[in-house]
Amino acid sequence: MTTAAITAPSKPGAPSKTRARRQAVLWGWLFLVPLVVLFTAFSLWPIVASWAYAFFDWDGVGPPEVFVGLDNFREALNSSSFWNAFWNSFLFSLGALFIELPAALCLAMLLNNVLLRGRNIYRLAIFLPVVSTTAVIGLVIAVLLAPVGGVVNEVLLGIGLVDRPVNFLGDPNVALPTLVVVDIWKGFGITLIYWLAALQTVPKDLYEAAKLDGAGARQQLANITIPVIMPIAVVVLLLTFQRSLNTFDLVQAVTGGGPIFSTDVLPTYIYRYAFDASIAAPRYGFACAVGVIFGVFTLIITLLQGPLLAGRLKRTAA
């Protein structure tokens, strides 16, 4: 004898599970619409448009009409001013990678010590420049480093380190190193936070076991701290490199790329050709071509981090 499955009738007006699931998915997509619209309008479209405009001789007014192909790219790559800005941007990155990263790691290990009193106050003080307005920082730096009446020059003259005022921001040989140091100081706090987050992933049990085995501070650093934080360190390196490459606001606020373009970086180079009033006729298409070259370079560096990260992870796992 066979029995037929009897399904209890659903209550009137009660939605089925399938209908409820569809409504939940629909509401999810509806909440995503503002994000998608804003991302498309302010991120995706500018990227696509800059690639398209790079092939035109366009001043940014009206629709682009004069197609020049790869001429903008050739002009940029053959321009000594472009390579000057490129090299200056690279110097900012070198300063961040070889000075800021190791210095921030050393200070992070000190501030990660639970026995250090007032460590949260020190963290706050170091992080304040990161959240401070760059225009304000630029104004303060210009006043402090002024050759006449500047506090730094007054101190240097007072202790006898120099016999005449140093024009930190007006001397082409000194302006770029000065801005690199200021940029390191301003970005030091965010790099410190990265390292603190990495250090807090190290299990405390490993240190306790190492102490029981008689390992000293150097041995713990070499055999525990560095191997454990290495995967995160590669990410920190990548983030710091990308941030240092995009130094625009500080240079624009303090020197504007001068004197004699000695502090010109690729972002200020692009800005000058696209928006600066010092250019007789804006060259928006040329600026877009330089931006594309800059973006491709940054993308290549980012992709090269993949094999490096994978290799570090394998060594750490081994």
UniProtKB/TrEMBL annotation:
It is found in: Cell membrane. It is a multi-pass membrane protein. The keyword Transmembrane applies. Residues 86-305 form the ABC transmembrane type-1 domain. Keywords: Cell membrane, Membrane, Transmembrane, Transmembrane helix, Transport. The chain crosses the membrane at residues 26-48, 90-112, 124-146, 174-199, 220-241, 284-304. The keyword Cell membrane applies. Belongs to the binding-protein-dependent transport system permease family. This is Sugar ABC transporter permease.
